[in-house]
Amino acid sequence: MTASLKARHDVRPFARILAVCREGTHELLNPPVGNVPGLDALRSLAIILVVSGHYYGEFSDAQGITLAIGRFPFFYFAWTGVDLFFVLSGYLIGRQLWRELTVRGTINIPRFLLKRGLRIWPYYFVFVAWSICLSPKPISKFLPDLFFLSNYFPGAVAGTWSLSTEEQFYIFVPVLLCAVSFFTSVKRQFLVIVGLLVASPFIRYLTLSAYHGEITHDVGVRIIQLPFHTHADGLLAGLLLSWVSVLKPDHLKPLPFLRNLILPAVLVVVGLLLRSLDRIFGLSALALIFSGMTLFVLRDRSALRRLFNKHIFYLTSRLSYGMYLNHFPVLSFAVPLLVAARISNKTYVNFFIGYPLMVFASMAVAAGTFILIESPFLQLRESWLAAKNQADEVRKADLKPALRPERP
Prior knowledge:
It contains 16 helices and no strands. The chain has helices spanning 3-7, 13-29, 37-63, 73-76, 81-104, 109-134, 143-146, 160-180, 190-210, 217-225, 233-247, 257-277, 282-299, 304-308, 311-341, 347-403. The longest helix is centred in the last third of the chain and has 57 residues, at 347-403.
């Protein structure tokens, strides 16, 4: 905790607010110790993919035509950015859970959920409340969004389905790992995750088989793409990677470029082959492909590290959560203005001029909400965790005399 954060309790309210904002700005501009630049690069790629896909859709709708550039892979597969987010989330959250389980033999689930909540909930609920205030829809339409169920029941806030999936993952996984701990050691728990990964395409197959009626694209999205139980492959793959990083860290030691490339390339090739077989393997394929990419950056020690260390990746990664939520209203407001302005008579000139403008607009809004909303709660979480750890240390110190055996 920095000096400004420690001092903010001893100053006047306005100065205290400024101190909190300065701390948020510092956090936004300075990577923490132990930060992995390669993961920042992947998270940046994920959010740029998501924003790109929705920008293309908004621009095409506002222009009233379907642009051929939509067939370009970067835009055509932009929707897969969410699956890359899932792999990264599974890895980062899994590391916390496996470490605690390895050290303590159990997981403090309420503490874990509160830690995640202080990261996700403040801006999420502010954003949902803002959406409710601006919408003519009744508040009942927002209940799935408010209770993180919009991946099963239609909500009124765009994009919240993936955050609902992640929230359900935060509940499901620690409960699963604690339950499995009664039957097997941590060293063998990876088998459970592998089993769930293998079962995922069969769950999708059974879901599709049980559906009565024509399986259109919209139906496929509703019963396969959105629900947690049919779209958890990326989260599980990331969780498996995190098990390797905690229990078998030697497997993630840095490697030269060519040696490091072998296993990730195998995962990508297997993923591409699976994707060509049947649509029930599509999400499994994406999990393998993005796991391969994540594995590569975790073990990379090539010249690419200098590229990944560019501050723009850390900044974009840090803002990715805010960008994911805000880019929907940013695009719906700004793209029609861009099209109406007709900067050029050529459609593609307008498209490519507007593209970076929309990305930077989303980043600017996310920077503001990070400093004003997200960071204060992260600072609160830091203070709370420090106090809890100090209390635990005091408790342990008090117990030591009682536990010390008496001398004969």
